[in-house]
Amino acid sequence: MAISHLRNEWAPNVTRELLAGTVVALALIPEAIAFSIIAGVDPKVGLYASFCIAVVSAFAGGRPAMISAATGAMALVMVTLVKQHGVQYLFAATILTGIFQIVASLLKLGNLMRFVSRSVVTGFVNALAILIFLAQMPELIGRGPTVYVMTAVGLALIYLLPLVTKAVPSPLVTIILLTGVAMYFGFDIRTVGDMGALPNELPFFAIPQVPLTFETLQIIAPYALTLAMVGLLESLMTAAIIDEMTDTTSDKNRECAGQGTANVVAGLFGGMAGCAMIGQSVINVSSGGRGRLSTLWAGAFLLFLIVVLGPYVSQIPMAALVAVMIMVSINTFQWRSLRSLLIHPKSSSFVMLGTVAVVVWTHDLAKGVLFGVILSGLFFAHKVTRFFAVESDRDGETRIYRVTGQIFFATAEAFHSAFDFREEDVQRVVIDLSAAQFWDITAINALDRVVLKFRHHDIAVETVGMNKATATMVERLAVHDKDGSKLASGH
Fold first, then answer.
1. In 10 A of CB 245, how many CB atoms?
2. CB atoms within 10 A of CB 67
3. What is the pLDDT of residues 10-31, one digit of tens each?
4. All residues at 6 or more sequence positions from 97 whose CB lies less than 8 Å from its CB, including other chains
5. DSSP characters for 372-401?
6. Is 429 helix (H, G, I), strand (E, B) or coil?
7. What angle do CA 299, 301, 304 make, to 5 degrees?
8. To bridge 266 with a disulfide, which of 44, 52, 343, 371 should be the other Cys (CB 3.0-4.6 Å)?
9. Short-list 50, 52, 56, 42, CA closest to 88
10. Which residues contact 218 (CB under 8 A, 6 or more apart)?
């Protein structure tokens, strides 16, 4: 049973895992170089980071088949740190980033993913698909007819080859064939080697050469905290997407720890901080990767490619990789979400479109997701307030109020305003809370104000029907049931 579980987790199909990892490794090279350039460091920093993070996360991560490496979102955060303090401080910040992420796993922050609505996830995916597509345009526009033809042929191969055979991933065949054609005919087009020099030596262990002082901590901590948050957000969102694509589940808290461990190792081996990559993860899954072996092989084969086969890898035309990434953007985009705009509630559609707009406008995935989560929360709070009501009837000198719905910060004021504190000839008030639920301190404070205000007008008050959760909150937080309580000055 244990061996069967291990096989399913690591390599359901060894051949497919290795082939998928090979495609991913080839696609990682230009991305890692580009992100290194963005961060202002040598290309080997991004390449070493991609190797370390992919290999370590294969063992320690919580989501099999997900690819983690150096990413653009993380690189953007590093620019100022590298410019002002140098690459050694980047390595130190990378290690601290990993430590923060491990702490996040101990605090079970991965569970917060359940507060991200489906609309936000869809918006995140669609925005990322658009960004992936736009990122290919500099390698396509103005590069000449040869590049256009090569890209078109690449896309045709990617989509038509599976109709003939699925034994080998079509992206891998496309890269190999287009590279062979470009080398044979000597096309004068941009290649991987034009992006930056590939390293020819293995990464080695080294403690970052920075002073071990509180001043150093003050410099790197803000960057590390930002990197940790951005990295976890992008990784957990990507894990949720791969969960859906593969119809499986993953351990989000283990993923936090895995990302943290990978970043610590990357920092100790001359790499920059990284996180999950949705584009490469989609390539992996689309190519048949389902287990941890594909992730492990992607990292290991990446190092083999750059150190041993560097001269050949540098000849890969960017047009071939552009075709692969355009395929990724097309497959990533949730096309059915466009039809759903006419079916889903307007609030859900607005959240999805808002998330897309913010991510595409700012090129910051974290800002887009944060905007979507806040917007979802506001819409949810507004929706809940529509199901809140207070009804009343009178029985002689007694007024009975029946409260229905959820009482929290958004409905607390409406709850307070529903009571008449100066009604004539009323000697007693009964507040029936059988159909109500109190959720926070604001709600309890509103109940205190209501009860104490009635008492202030010499009207006896009784609350009945509290459920167990509400009664517990009232016992702990309320003051109206405590000796000596009275209405605060000003009320």
1. 15
2. 34
3. 888 899 999 999 989 988 888 8
4. 224, 227, 228, 231, 260, 263, 267, 273
5. HHHHHHHHHHHHHHTT-EEEEEEETTEEEE
6. strand
7. 115
8. 52
9. 42
10. none
The token duo for 189 is 């087009």
Q: What angle do CA 23, 236, 354 make, to 5 degrees?
A: 100
Cα dist from 470 to 197, 281, 439, whole Å:
65, 45, 7
**In terms of Cα–Cα distance, which of 289, 220, 231, 229 is closest to 49?**
231
Tell how far CA 158 is from the center of its chain. Answer: 28
Structure tokens at 133: 């597509």
Predicted TM-score (pTM) of this structure? 0.74
Extract the residue ranges of the chain whose pLDDT is less than 50. 1, 489-491
**Residue (of 356, 306, 305) closest to 334 by Cα position:** 356
Q: The tokens 């922050």 sit on which residue?
A: 109
> Interior CA angle at 241 toward 235 and 243, to 5°?
100
Give the integer Cα–Cα distance in Å for 176 and 171.
9
Which has the closest alpha carbon to 30: 362, 315, 366? 315
Residue 155: how many other CB atoms lie within 10 Å: 17
Measured CA distances, 441 to 60, 384, 418 (Å):
40, 17, 19
What are the φ/ψ torsions at residue 435 (nearest 5 degrees)?
-105, 20
Question: How far is 247 from 270, CA to CA, in rounded Å?
Answer: 36
Asked whether the CA dihedral 312, 314, 317, 323 is positive or negative, the reply is: positive
Q: E strands, 265-360, where?
A: 275-276
Say which amino acid occupies 197: A
Query: H-helix or E-strand containing 407?
Result: strand 398-407
Number of H helices, E strands in the chain: 20, 6
Which amino acid, residue 227? L
